């Protein structure tokens, strides 16, 4: 009877052990990603705190994520803001000038974005 339980238990344990890296938080990020971020930071004169404040002025709510990215050959802060209505809005702030480039409503179910306003 123990053999009947032990074999499946060992198989499940082995499967968990082998697939653990797939659950890793690190994902594909590594040294290349760190180098990319370092390059973006060199272009940014606007701090993350300043970008979040600007984004919240443009779309009131709670900032839930901020990320430095390259879009259309510009370094921008992409700030996600959760509004009182439960909608998430992405606000793109120019990392060099601090001006709002645009705002997009983000729909969580499908991951689609609707352009809301462009500056």
Low-confidence stretches: 12-28
Taking strands numbered 1, 2, ... along the chain, how are they ordered across the largest sheet?
1-2-3-4-5
The number of domains? 1
Summarize the main sheet. 5 strands, antiparallel
Query: So, CATH architecture?
Result: Roll
Radius of gyration: 21 Å
The shape is elongated
Secondary structure category: alpha+beta
**Which fold name corresponds to the CATH topology?**
Nuclear Transport Factor 2, Chain: A
Query: Mean pLDDT, rounded to whole units?
Result: 77
Number of strands: 5
CATH C-level class: Alpha Beta
Distance between the termini: 71 Å
Q: Give me the strand/helix succession.
A: HHHEEEEE
Describe the structure.
- This protein is of the alpha+beta class.
- The chain has a single domain (30-118), classed as Nuclear Transport Factor 2, Chain: A.
- The protein is 35% helix and 33% strand.
- The chain contains three helices and five strands; from the N terminus they run H-H-H-E-E-E-E-E.
- It has helices at 2-19, 31-43, 48-58; strands at residues 62-71, 74-82, 88-94, 100-106, 113-118.
- The chain has a five-stranded antiparallel sheet.
- The longest helix is centred in the first third of the chain and has 18 residues, at 2-19.
- Residues 12-28 have low confidence and may be disordered.
